[in-house]
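Why do we care about 3D structure at all? Because function follows from shape, and shape follows, mostly, from sequence. That is the central idea of this module. The next example makes it concrete: a single protein chain, its amino acid sequence, and then its structure expressed as tokens.
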Amino acid sequence: MRSVIATLAMLLLAGAALAQTPAPPAAAGRGAAAAAAPPRVLKYSLAPRPDPLTPWILPNKPLWRLGELLAAHKGEPRWHQTVVQDKNFTGTFIQMAPGEKSKRLMYPDNEIFFVVQSGQLRVSIDGLEPFVTGKSVVVQVPQRTMFHVETLGSDPALRFEVIHSGMPPIYAAEETPPSQSGVEFVRIAYAAPAAPPKLDPATVYINFDKDIVQGGGRAGRFVKPSSFIRGMTIPTPPRDDLGHWHTETSEFYFIMEGQQDFQLEGQKPFIAAQGDVVYVPFGRFHRNNFTGGGTATRLATFPAGNINNLDPENPSRQAP
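And the structure:
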């Protein structure tokens, strides 16, 4: 095994959110000079890159297709399958049967979020009136806030839920936690306000189809560790456009709408569609573009500090 080497890379010195979010289009009616993007400034540094490259370790895969997951669990009213798990995040598809209700719990030190893929859920979060969600609704639950969800109607409800890895929940006192090997649930006390603080619904949930696709809302960061990255179909760049890689943070994408063409180092190019999940280990070049006609959006999840390292010999001009 070769040791980790310092690889010459081009670093775009920008914050993670700005680096991951495409700039809004220029306003119509402005002159060419006003619409022109500012010249790109490139700087050169030495960055450590894994050698050999970071592998995909199950459950992480380059691509989890939603259709294949649904086929694997056909006929099951309730199921769950983890498709992302690394040191930062764990992402799981969770289907609940009609009438099923989750246990009331909270995550004490981190927010969690989920995307509703199908069916209807009634979401009850301390500090907010219960609300009903359907397909494309994204819900973010703040840390130290009790919540539960319940399936409505005659169909199962499927969601993709993301939590911080290694951060187990705390259950409400009236609940019976699931049995876990090597774990004993004990009664605790903790300081908290007498009444849950009131939450702003605009910071807790967003209906992607209604508010952004139909309503013209701006894509960008909504949930704390993630950004909506949205754009129109563009020609596929040449395959020698490698995109970029990240020094120490992996990332993954949930496709919200449309289709996106992905090129991941060491893999054949592929197209991901709505509901699919794509995972990119740190250190691997990756590039994607919006394809299939119309508009496409991915919900990109990544830790802070996700700088884009470019190939110094052929720096990609693709938006991240």
